Amino acid sequence: MMRVMSPADRPPPPAPTTERPIAVVGATGEQGGAVARRLLSQGVPVRALVRDPAAEKARALADRGADLARADLTDDASLRAAFTGVAAAFAMASPTPEAGAEGEIEHGRAMAEAAAAADVPHVVYSSVGGVERHTGIPHFESKHLVEERLLELGMPTTFVRPVFFMDNFSRFMPPTEEDDTLVLRLPMPGDVPLQVIASADVAVVAVVALLDPGRIPGGALEIAGDELTGVQMATAYGERRGRPARFESLPAEVLDDDQRAMFEWFSHPPAYQADFAATRRLHPQVLTFDQWLERTP
After folding, report:
1. pLDDT in tens, 165-215
2. CA 126, CA 109: separation in Å to the nearest integer?
3. Within a 10 A sphere around the Cβ of 17, how many other Cβ atoms?
4. DSSP class of residue 99?
5. How far is Cα 214 from Cα 224, in angstroms, rounded to an integer?
6. What does the buried/exposed string (b/e) look like for 264-290 if buried means 16 or more CB atoms within 10 Å of the residue's CB?
7. What is the spatial distance between Cα 84 and Cα 121, in angstroms, rounded to a whole number?
8. φ, ψ for residue 262, nearest 5 deg
């Protein structure tokens, strides 16, 4: 079995400089954008990998001091060029609308191979909690295959493995208002705890890993900010908004195969197994669910 290369097994990556910046894949996306902005706010030079340097989000990063590099995940030459001469790289991939998890595998492997060809000294890869435990969830298994490819290539890699994003509740599954009551519905039992994290907090941990990989012993960490049941989440919504609230469990049949596999995994603990103490050591201000609600419209 392949293991994650520990910090003791590898030399420290070079310090980032203007001539040798940190590359950020998906710099106009949510995670990549948060990583790029945090690095820039700390005065760290960034090479932002973007598909369209003229896009508004790309120009906004350039205005903050990022160097823009055009890179297409389907164009190996552009990826190698974008990774060449960097001190480290942040990378991640997601299922694509066209090819789903297979598209994620293709993009992730392309990034891994381009980074290896460009001799990137250190890669921080944002994956998912539980990825190494053979969950059978398609979009978890795809990330596992990308992790394995990075290890096969001998890439010095740190894996940041976040749990379920709190942000999913504001985007995809917010509570509905019914007869003056907030109703939170999830396709899992209301008394089973779910580990969660704010997506912005993933970027904070990723930046720590980029700048000081030795702070993540073993080269991989499952991270979380809180753990609550569905009933507790509904109660938190109600208290925050000053309204009655309740939780209702949805049947798994409402989901596609990928999402159904994930929520069935959630429903039979232990599922996620984040290290809360280690997460907080790296990021003392990591948000609880209630703190995230306070900051979320």
Report:
1. 999 999 999 999 999 999 999 999 999 999 999 999 999 999 999 999 999
2. 14
3. 11
4. T
5. 20
6. bbbbeeebbebeeebbeebbeebbbbe
7. 10
8. -65, -50
